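Q: Convert this sequence to structure tokens.
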Amino acid sequence: MNRGKAVDKGGFSGNIRKKEMRRIIKLFALVCYTCPLCIVARRFPESRFAKWVKNVSKICPFCIAYRRSNPLKDFINKEG
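A:
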């Protein structure tokens, strides 16, 4: 009997390792980074369109991932 301890049975048990989750978040963030709607909203932040995108980004999984892990941070840190 195993009381109070989780047992890894191999295979997918519903728990995604942190490293894999970070990769997924970065991929989702990349989608937001290349999204034409988000690009225009970032270019013109005071426009009505940008305000609409800001409201939509509250439920968009790609925008949420972009806010959590900005891909530019990693790129800038590598470049200089």
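The radius of gyration is 18 Å.
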